[in-house]
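User: Hey, my collaborator sent me this sequence without any context and asked if I could get a structure. I don't really work with proteins. Can you help?
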Amino acid sequence: MNLKINFLGTAAATSYPLVFCKCKVCEQARKLGGCNFRKRSSLLINKDLLIDLGPDIMSASFMYNISIADVRYCLQTHSHSDHFDASHLSTRLPEYAVENIPKLKLYASNATLNKMSEMLKAEGYITDILNTVEQERLNLDVHPIKALQSFEAGKYQISAFSANHDKSIGSLLYAITEDNYTIFYGSDTDIIPEETWSGFHDKKLQFDVVVLDHTYGPNINGREHLNANGFIKQIQRMRDENLFKEHTRIFATHISHEGNPIHSDLVDYGKKNGYEIAYDGLII
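Assistant: No problem. I've predicted the 3D structure and written it out in structure-token form, which is a compact way to encode the shape of the chain:
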């Protein structure tokens, strides 16, 4: 088993540091650079499975010498602009003179796919991503999925779960298994819904790696995202409910400047509470 997990981005919607912010944390991040510079969240598994076709994936591909052209499967969590960039998908069209494009299989909730269609329409090329003719032009197979649905994508066994985040577009979380090695990717959620906890057990899942939303620092209350306190409680519940294997690794991602300090200080905080802090370019 040679599974590789590559963090292409680990920031919340606003990146880190924020473009115009001069708070102490953002100013420190600018001075220190390195792991303190965070692009919008996206994850690559091996060379062929991407979670979220976000706005920063090409910057990440240049920095980390990764070919996004090798991706065969895309799991879209939802359609917010920090997770989906319609301009990237539209470059698959013949109008861009692209060559040797392999088929891409795209998985998302029906509501997210409808929103993605609106965003693509605004680019001026296609009107309905669910239309088979337009899928042909994009060399794309589109698969609407629902929460608690399990399916295969190539060598991967995947299960989708409800997120506690913008229900209007059917936001999803994913568990991905290859060769009995299972990753849970839980970016963009507040407290995990009870139906998702039940789904973990119904599908008899145990995780080798957990990647979970950590948008806000301790005691910072935001909407539809976890803060550090909530993150710790969700991880403890996973541990209590026997969802971890013997050597499970836990990573915080989707990190904002709101209450989260610079990377080294956040690493120290995470160590005290039993988890690691993901950073852009991290490979597991």
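In plain terms: The radius of gyration is 18 Å. You can pass these tokens on to your collaborator as they are.
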